Every structure is written in C-alpha cells, then in structure tokens.
Amino acid sequence: xxxxxxxxxxxxxxxGPILLTAAAxxxxxxxxxxFWLDNGIHGTAGAGLVVISSALMAAAAAALVVATGMGxxxxxxxxxxxxxxxxxxxxxxxxxxxxxxxAAMAVAxxxxxxVLASGRQPRRSSDQPIGQPGAQ
Amino acid sequence: MNRLxxxxxxAALIASVGASFGSLDAWSQSVAPPxxxxxxxxAPIVGATHYDGWYTFNGxxxxxxxxxxxxxxxxxxxxxxxxxxxxxxDVSDGSGKIPLTDWSATPLFVNDTVYVSTPFYRxxxxxxxxxxxxxxxxxxxxxxxxxxxxxxxxxVAYWQAASPRPGTPCQKIVYIGTMDAKLxxxxxxxxxxxxxxxxxxxLDINQWNKINxxxxxxxxxxxxxxxxxxxxxxxxxxxxxxxxPPGTVFAVDAQSGKLKWTFDALPPELAKQTGTSxxxxxxxxxxxxxxxxxxxxxxxxxxxxxxxxxxxxxATSITALDVDTGKVLWSRQIVHHDxxxxxxxxxxxxxxxKKDGATIPALVQSSKMxxxxxxxxxxxxxxxxxxxxxxxxxxxxxxxxxxxxPYAATPEPTVPDRFxxxxxxxxxxxxxxxxxxxxxxxxxxxxxxxxxxxTLAYPSTAGGVEWGGGAVxxxxxxxxVNSSYVAQIYKLIERKQYEAEAKTGAKSDxxxxxxxxxxxxxxxxxxxxxxxxxxxxxxxxxxYDLNTGKLLWKKPFGEVQQWGFYMPKSWxxxxxxxxxxxxxxxxxxxxxMDARVRAIDLKSGEEVWQELVDAPAVANPATYIYKGKQYxxxxxxxxxxxxxxxxxxxxxxxxx
Lengths: 136, 656
Prior knowledge:
The structure holds two protein chains of two kinds.
Chain A: H1 15-35, H2 45-66, H3 72-96, H4 99-118
Helix pairs in contact in A: 1-2, 1-4, 2-3, 3-4
Chain B: H1 24-28, E1 66-67, E2 80-87, E3 101-106, E4 108-110, E5 113-117, E6 122-126, E7 133-138, E8 151-155, E9 157-160, E10 172-176, E11 182-187, E12 202-204, E13 224-226, E14 229-232, E15 249-253, E16 259-263, E17 284-286, E18 291-296, E19 317-322, E20 328-333, E21 349-355, E22 358-365, E23 373-376, E24 387-390, E25 404-407, H2 424-429, H3 433-440, E26 455-457, E27 471-473, E28 478-484, E29 488-494, H4 495-504, E30 510-511, E31 518-524, E32 539-545, E33 550-556, E34 561-562, E35 565-566, E36 580-582, E37 586-589, E38 596-601, E39 607-612, E40 622-626, E41 629-636, E42 649-655
Parallel strand pairs in B: 1-36, 3-8
Antiparallel strand pairs in B: 2-42, 4-5, 5-6, 6-7, 9-10, 10-11, 11-12, 13-14, 14-15, 15-16, 17-18, 18-19, 19-20, 21-22, 22-23, 24-25, 26-29, 27-28, 28-32, 29-31, 30-31, 32-33, 34-35, 36-37, 37-38, 38-39, 40-41, 41-42
C-alpha cells in the first residue's frame, strides 16, 4: 500500500533500541529535574509535562521494539506520535533550559530517523508481506 | 508608603502616594533657595567610603552601591562558586496562618560580621567566611500583614561609637524595624538587646502616629545612620483611605532613642485632609556638606486628588534637609499633583560628575516613570535640563490635574514614554482580547490621568525603576540601573458602583480610597491567559555616562518564567532589587524573575556569570573583603510580584 517504504514494516536495526534508550534516559532526566531542588524548574508544570511526554515516548518506543509484528497502520501512527512527542518534548526542554533532556531528544530523533530509514531498505524476500511476523 | 499587591506572573504593583497642586511656578522651581551648609565638623562614625565593607543598605551613605573590592574580575568571575549559604527558616508561602514572605534585606558586612534581618523580624549575625551563625535575635514581632500584604524587611542598620570601649555593651548596635514599627536596638557583638535605647531597647515609632492613625506605621526600610543619629522613615497601607497618617520622618539619637527632630512634607494645616508623602525608600547623606536627601512619596489618596488641590510642593519630591536640624535646604518636585502613585521610590544617588571641565556635586534620582533627574545636590538645580511638558488633563469630575509635568530627556529615560504596542502573540492567543481592551482605554502617552472609562498607565506604579535604584562608579561616573516595563489599567469608579463591583470582582483589583467619591480599579494589562498585552522587553539593565548624560548600553535583563518555561531572553524580566558595581568593572545583580544571580561586564553589558538560587534575589546584593578574600552575598527570598516563590536562603560566592 501507499505507506510501504515510508512508514515501514519492522526491520531490525539500531534505531529502535536507540529511540527506546533515549526515551528512557529522557524519562529519568525529566523525573530527576522534577524532583531535584536546585534546577529552577523542579515541581513546575513544565517539568511535570516532560515527565509525562517522556514516559509516553518510552512506552511507544518499547512497543516499536518489542511488538515487531504490529500492523503497518499502528506502527505508522506510533511513529508519527513519537515524532510529535520528540518535537514537543524537545521544545519544552529548550524552554525549560534542560540541556540534558534536549540532548536526549536529539538522540531520540536520530533513533527515530534510523527506524524510519530501516523501512526503506529493500525487502529480503518479495513474497513475504510487509509487516507480517517472520518477514525479517 | 509601599505596598505590593498583584500576584500575576509578569508584573504587579507596588504602592504609594502622590500629589501636589498649586501654582505652576511652585511646580517648576526648587522650593527653597540654595544655601549649602558648612562641612561636617568630624568624620562619620560609620564611614561612607570604607569600600572593603558594606556598612549600609546601599554600601555607603552616598547610596552608590559601589565597592573598591577588585579581586573578582570579568576574567575570573567564571570561577565563582558558592562559599557558604544559610537557611534562616524564616519563610512562608502564605498557605498557612503566617502571611507570605517577601524578603528584600540587603546583608550588611561590618564589625567582621554579616548581619541580615529576616521577614519574621529576626536578626542573623553570620561569620563572613564560613556562614556559621554567631547569634540570632528575635523581636517576637507579631507575624501579621498589618499594613503590607506580605511580611517583608529590607534589612538592618548599624551604628558604632566613635571609640568603642571594649567590654562595654552597645558600643556597636544593630537596628531592626518591624511591621508594627518597633525599632529594636541590639548589641552587635552579642545579640543582646540594648536596654538603654528607648524603652528597654525598643522604640515604638507608632507612639508618634496620632493624625489619621487608621493603620500602624511599618519600619521595613532600615534607618539611615549618620554620626549619632538615626533617620527613620516608614511604610504604610496604601490605596485604602483618602486621609492617611502624614509622612513624618523621625531623627532620633542612636544610643538613647530620644527624638531629636521631625520633618513633615505636608503642611500641618493640610495633614488631616490627606496624608502620607512619607519616605519609605532609602535616604542618602552628603557627609561633607551635612545634607540628608529624602525620596518623598506622594500624598493620599493615590489615584485621585480632588481632596488635595492645594499646593503640596514637597510631595513626590527629592528634598534636602540639614542633617542636624531637619531644616529644608531645597526640594524639587518630580511629579506635580501625582495621580499615578509615582512615588519617589529609590535612593538619591550622590556622585561628583565632570561636565564642561568642572566637577559638579551631583544627585541622580531615578523614578517610576523611568526618568532620571540629575541635580546639583547642593542647590537642587538641574545639571541636565528639566522641562515642564504639557500633559493630558483629567476629565474626572472633581479632579484638577496639573497642566504640566517635569521631564528630563537627558539621560535618556529608561522606559520609552510611549506605549510599545500590542503584543501580537498575546493578542492572537486571546482572540483579540488585548486589542479590544486597548481600544476601550484612554491613552495619550505618559501622564494620561486615571479616568472613569479606564486609562492605560505606561509606565505604571510598578515602574520604571523600583526601590533599589541604581549604582554608580564614582571614578568614571558610570551609572547602572535595572528597570521594569509594566502596563496597567487604572480606573476610577463612582462610589456606589464601586461598592457593587468590588463585592464581585477580584479582591486584588479593587481599592476603596475611602473618603473621596471614587474607588479604584487597578489591573495588569494582561489577557485571560495571563500573558502581557504589551510588546517586550519587560525589563532591562542600562548603563549611562553621567558626565555626558549618554546611554552607553541597554539590554534586556533576566528571563520571564512561567510554568517552568523560560521565555526568550530578548523579553527580559520585570525586576526588583538593584545592582552593585565593583572597582574591577563588574556588576552583580539578582532582581530577575528567573531566580538567578548574575555578574555583568560593566563595559559591554554582557553577562559573564550566573548562578541559580532558591528564589528571585530581590534584595540588593552586597560585597566585601574578609581575610583577603572577596565575597558577594545575595539574599534569595523572593517577592510575590515576580512569582509565587519564597525562600530563606542567604548565599555567598567567592573565587575557588
């Protein structure tokens, strides 16, 4: 279908783990920032917001990595949501002047691009439908 | 008087008084012919120019906020680190029985000790190199917001005998004032009360509060100390009444607390029909000539002057007194018949400037309007021209506004005298609310009077320059000052309608002005999201060459923070508190909403160091050298005007 090659089937590369790791690290940083007193943002709504957005990102990234057999539509939706999450969390991190969190979002973006790029690689076998279990 | 109200994220208010009405000649001229007194006979007890310490609220009696300490330089300031910090425990977020704390106390360094007062009205004596607390003194003051909306203090004052006798108590005294105007005298070495001072060590200033005594006086600004005299001003409760206590300044003996003389800015025959014109900000002293300079605030009520149309030439003025007698030497009114609460709210800064080949003893008075009045401090005559400008006239029945107001174009006012325009982002976000509101308001530039339809006040009573004022390098004549840019809506409301509106409206927006036909509505010009409706910046830091009157640089200062998010640096932040300057060419300042303390390169205005503290450091900082090491100390206590964040932190920084 039209999405194939753009919003790809799961394909093993480093993208997913990078994204997941970056999201997990971001979550840890966000939680630390929320509770650590000497950072100027602890306990604020903004700091709380990035805790939530990072957690959602980590969950979505974990789903991408673990649930390799998910449908293309769901996978595509997840990737779009993750992209929005990265942009939003990155912007929030910038405005919170949370540099480590911003760096984590940069890494997450690399991972996301890698995930996306993995879908553009040629299929190993033309008779295996995209997105089916065992396709990789 | 000073009162802080609004709790909005971006701006807010302060308060006090203002007005005088009379002949145009009286408005535009100094009140008394200049007659400089003879130089003081002996040196002051606490020298004004002991630059390795910080003996007064402003570092010295000239209110220069200048230090000759030069160990910390623009090159090494990046190595500053926290040397010590003290948490006093005296903090309240206002959620319980104790009101919110606004802590603006400048720490003093004198007698080898750092002294600071807390908003619970205790004194902390701290070792200057370790932060170890030597002693504390508790006034046991009632922790109620009897005049101000929050608990606040601006610090302590210090006196010592010309030749202190070792082992004799109270040869060195620290003074602290309270919200109910009890002035406590405490031995600087031991923290024990000085029983010989007034009534068992406590002077009740309210014993002299006898005219229109509808509320108690508050001694929040530490007294000015010169030789053996304390000069005491006070703050009160603004915007509530038309007839307030008259703003008497008291000169008392530093050891006995006995009254020496008083000064009143209001004529006695008018004292009952108006009030205030008090001195709630810091005073300064020319030690050579024995002159005390008072920043006199405006009369009551603050936003309507129909009850005080008489000539009140000393109201909203800079007034020079003989230190020994309290006799007026000269006075210059900076706002005629004040209808905007444009108090003279900051310390008159004394410095000699060089102009046209001559050295001139000068005084710089900053203002809430953002205008700077640079005067010959011996005569009150302007060094840079002050013109009388035609201003918009009031259309409120019963009011009679002044046809002109003083205006000094040099040095360039720190706040533009025109509204900077509607902030498109706030307007779009509020679906045009900002534009719609603006169209409903009366606005004809600076000094547009309050009206029944609603007036846009820019700058407003929130400033402009706030109570900290500026700092000056006396060697170069470079003057540095932080400023805020705040637009507010002023509206007079006929009494009956006011009573109805005030019942349903937000409490922080309505002020009764009992005794005149109009109550008052004051609100920050913000949209329903709390975003300011006017274009940034919201605060700047500026440097001027006083020898030429030229602006050297002006930069947005600090960052606005909302929900943790920092807005662009180009917006700057509303500021409270003041800078200090060191000989090495550094400016140290807190003041901003973002709870950071900073060092700025005096030459370029570039930030060269910053550090996060626990709350906005709205107190003036201090610097000193102790055992060969320079320290910069900040009180980070917060102020509800900037954001709802309070702390009890005193933090000192030094090189590694």
